[in-house]
Amino acid sequence: MSESKNISNCRISRNVLIKAPGLLPMLYTTREIAEDLDVPETTLRDWLNHGAPHSRDESNHIWIDGKQFAAWVDNQRNSRKKPAHQLQAGEGFCMRCNTIVKIQNGEIRPVKGHLSHLKGKCPICGGIVNRGIWNAGSSELSQG
Ligand SMILES: [Zn+2]
Q1: Within-domain flag for 3
Q2: What is the pLDDT of residue 95?
Q3: How far is the CA of 118 from the centre of ligand 1 (A)?
Q4: 2 falls in which pLDDT band (50, 70, 90)?
Q5: Is residue 7 part of a domain?
Q6: Is 127 inside a domain boundary?
Q7: Residue 87 and residue 46: Cα distance in Å, rounded?
């Protein structure tokens, strides 16, 4: 967990990732956000320069919507990290739930060569979950 390893202009610390979801759907000043997230205001302004959502009033004061900002923080994390979890047999990523689920009622459909699609239902929302698999084996369907 080295804090200095990944230095970029737009580094979001773990601390911020944990705190950002607690921001309220209201307008904050840069100073308030910086205090809430425990980061220097200069860092916060860096993020604004890198696309963090904010607006300015006619006096050129910056206002930040807490919820929008939290969503942006979340996006930064997602764009920086590959999924940490390797999909296991029978698992897929549900776009609606934004999480990995065990695919229910999975069906394997050959696509081309060794590529197949595993298509089934999300156990959480009931939506369709698709997953591309290579060299599909029966293990993909072994669960309930
Ligand atoms: Zn789902």
Answers
A1: no
A2: 86
A3: 15
A4: very low
A5: no
A6: yes
A7: 35
